[in-house]
């Protein structure tokens, strides 16, 4: 019982240190530094020297984040650790980094190493303002999905109408449903929809109906 109490006291002290400002700022700074290194790795010319240098730096970051994950696991109650999805994310990233570094000539190792750049998402857990933004975005997913479904439905209806009327005139834009859908999706983003509209006016010789078709669609989905 005394040993259990001592272990509990140690875990409390470690947890206080881990949750403290110094440790959290240190971890956040190293996460950002790791992200900057990832940028430099893709920007600088690939030579034997740079490859070796970035491998050594990556080993250093991986060792640090592995130790940090172990401290987090030791200081946090098991149930609390397991039920936190951010801890699952940390474990996944660290695990993939360890496997890709430890096993040489591993198939798909290059793709696995791409997980390292996702470490920057851990800042959302440690910076309150980032976390608030992520929480707000998560809460908006359900209402936004309904609006997205309406936009898809309207675009599909206009694609059917467009293919029915303009297939013979501009098959490159309305030759089939999916081609027409992509054309309208491009118009929804504002990418060259006026040029498509004018080309369609010239091809059909009926500018009024074409203008009504395109302008009403842009107004509805824009």
CA(first)-CA(last) distance: 67 Å
* Strand residues, percent: under 5%
| Biggest sheet statistics | none
**Class computed from helices, strands and strand pairing:** mainly alpha
**Model regions low in confidence, pLDDT < 50 over at least 5 residues:** none
Count all strands and give the number.
Answer: 0
Number of helices: 13
Shape: elongated
Mean pLDDT: 84
Molecular structure report:
The chain is mainly alpha-helical. 82% of the residues lie in helices and 0% in strands. The protein contains 13 helices and no strands. The protein has helices at 2-19, 21-43, 48-75, 78-83, 85-102, 109-113, 123-126, 128-139, 141-166, 171-174, 177-188, 193-204, 207-221. Helix 2 runs antiparallel to helix 3 (48-75), helix 9 (141-166) packs across helix 11 (177-188) and helix 9 (141-166) packs antiparallel against helix 13 (207-221). It is elongated, with a radius of gyration of 27 Å. The model has no long low-confidence stretch (mean pLDDT 84).
Features:
222 residues, 0% strand, elongated, 13 helices, mainly alpha
Please specify the SSE layout and strand pairing:
Blueprint (H helix, E strand, L loop, with lengths): L1 H18 L1 H23 L4 H28 L2 H6 L1 H18 L6 H5 L9 H4 L1 H12 L1 H26 L4 H4 L2 H12 L4 H12 L2 H15 L1
Helix pairs in contact: 1-3, 2-3, 3-5, 9-11, 9-13, 12-13
